[in-house]
Design goal:
transmembrane helix; BilAc:Na_symport/Acr3; Bilac:Na_transpt; BASS family bile acid:Na+ symporter; Na+/H+ antiporter like fold
Length: about 350
């Protein structure tokens, strides 16, 4: 199990690379992930959310209780900035109804499951990150359908109530089960071994979803052109910027500003992909947009986290915070006459 745990750590570290590899393999041999459709895709999504739930214990809920204002502010920023920004970017690039639907789906979904890892790498506030991801996931079954219906409901037929029930099943239920298992068995050695493996399982499941979409709609990826990549990149990058400066506006410290930047910018595009294929099966472009977002968010989030970490090292080298102990001793010595 220790070996599997090490593999899981490496998979989590190179999430973006794994997802890109899965997409590339699917383009070469579509049958590789052609099985990730329909009910199978729902189960795979559930595994991802279960893995997230297994990271939540009593201490995390205590964080929610102790810091409700910060988490409330962060969740409000996420569920206002990203949906409104999505429809704005779609209109700016004059996207087709299908691509618009996909981008708005991404914008109205909760924070990404990998955002906690990215916050850790960025030297952000991990507890704050977990709190934001948890709250955004809990309220997603209500908020996502409402936003989607308001922003694109007039142009796309959708089953808001059905989406609400589906999200309860795919998000809240597995998260609740995983969290309950963590609370009950967190002090058991066997459970800690299983929990250590789950991040890697989630990454592979994430990659399988992207591969499944590529297998079904791969022939139509190129038809969407560069515009969908540009739109997703602009939506994502502006989300990072607005998230960071929203945190600054509310007086948050550096770690929290970095965390809220990542939490706002990195969306659960895997969930968006699942919602697209489940509720809009005839709209290939929406699934394509969500799948491209899966890849882009994983790459950009990892890059941003590394930029934050690099900046800290650069500042430490430029303005060292420690003073040589021997130099302090020398300062106390009497000066010798030459």
């Amino acid at each position: 199990m220790q070996f599997l745990g090490m593999i899981s750590q490496q998979l989590s570290r190179f999430t973006a690379l794994v997802i890109i590899l899965a997409a590339a393999v699917t383009f070469i041999e579509p049958a590789t992930f052609s099985w990730v459709t329909g009910d199978t895709q729902v189960i795979v999504l559930g595994v991802i959310m279960l893995a997230m739930g297994m990271t939540l214990g009593k201490e995390d809920y205590k964080v929610l209780a102790k810091r409700p204002l910060d988490i409330f502010i962060g969740s409000i920023i996420q569920y206002t900035v990203m949906p409104i920004l999505a429809i704005g970017v779609a209109r700016l690039f004059d996207l087709s109804p299908g691509l618009t639907l996909g981008l708005v789906l991404v914008g109205t979904c909760p924070g990404g499951v990998s955002s906690n890892i990215m916050s850790y790498l960025a030297k952000g506030d991990v507890a704050f990150s977990v709190g934001m991801t948890t709250v955004s996931t809990i309220i997603a079954p209500l908020v996502t359908p409402l936003w989607l219906n308001y922003l694109v409901g007039q142009s796309v037929e959708m089953d808001g109530w059905g989406m609400f029930r589906f999200m309860l099943l795919v998000t809240l239920l597995p998260v609740a089960i995983g969290s309950m298992l963590n609370i009950l068995f967190h002090n058991k050695h066997w459970f800690n071994d299983v929990r250590a493996v789950m991040p890697g399982v989630a990454v592979l499941a994430f990659a399988a979803i992207v591969g499944g979409v590529a297998a079904v709609f791969g022939s139509q990826f190129l038809q969407s052109g560069l515009v969908v990549i540009l739109a997703i990149a602009v939506h994502n990058i502006i989300g990072y910027v607005l998230g960071y400066y929203s945190g600054a506006f509310f007086g948050m410290n550096k770690a929290k500003k970095r965390t809220i930047s990542i939490e706002v910018g990195v969306q659960n595009a895997g969930l968006a992909t699942g919602l697209s294929t489940k509720f809009f099966p005839g709209n290939a472009e929406s699934a394509i947009a969500a799948a491209v977002a899966c890849i882009w968010h994983s790459v950009s989030g990892s890059v941003l986290a590394n930029i934050f970490a690099w900046w800290d090292k650069r500042q430490e080298a430029k303005f060292p915070t420690t003073i040589d102990a021997e130099a302090i001793v020398d300062l106390g010595k009497p000066i010798k006459n030459s």
